[in-house]
């Protein structure tokens, strides 16, 4: 086995896994604090990327101006979702909330294409998709400079979120809400305001994920399916754990690339599309709650 090629595949998979983890964290944020599985997260990724590139293409804005404007739009979208969709459905069955997010996903997808058009857009970030000269010269390994920078941006955002949850007053309130809604209300934590903050942060996460995936694959409707790649990540890591989302993303990214390169030629290709789901299914049989998920004990 060529070790250099093996490490190229492994590192490439791990870097892709970091971007999968970023999408998964958008799910974790909402699910952990409100118990809502946000099926609309993929639509938010698409909406964010299309809004940003639409401002550049149609209004002639620079990317540096379009990004902060899109951040404002996504924060407003997150707050509006909480106020219009989530708040009226508080204390409703989980399946009701889930169905509401499915409807929300179709609405956001339609709204994005109504405002900005349905054609494919090219998003150019100031990061070249060329092999890293340092890794090439030092280790003779071909790894995309774009993948490295994208993984660095994702890691920075995840670290910032982790510090916010651990060190700030808002973060402590978020953790209290996640642990027990009623207890949080009893000590005066404004539940609805906390949920609004969470949806706003989920919108920001969607923007970063949308820009990175949009720069790689083009800003198009297919971006909505990026969220589906987060499902195996969530199954492996647990639906309520940010560290689990990161570890799960790395496992899925690395295994997907390894399967594509080493198993794909034996089965005829296309394995990267379904292998993560098979891996997640097998993992469900062993540990349904995920690596970092909490075991649920129900008394009957």
From TrEMBL:
InterPro entries on file: ABC_transp_permease, BCAA_transport_permease
Name listed for the protein in its UniProt record: Branched-chain amino acid ABC transporter permease
Annotated membrane topology: Multi-pass membrane protein
Keyword annotations from UniProtKB, A to Z: Amino-acid transport, Cell membrane, Membrane, Transmembrane, Transmembrane helix, Transport
PANTHER family: ABC TRANSPORTER PERMEASE PROTEIN, BRANCHED-CHAIN AMINO ACID TRANSPORT SYSTEM PERMEASE PROTEIN LIVH
Localization in the cell: Cell membrane
A Pfam family: BPD_transp_2
Species annotation: Duganella qianjiadongensis
Principal subcellular localization: membrane
Family membership: Belongs to the binding-protein-dependent transport system permease family. LivHM subfamily.
TM region(s), chain numbering: 6-29, 36-56, 62-85, 97-119, 139-165, 194-213, 233-254, 266-286
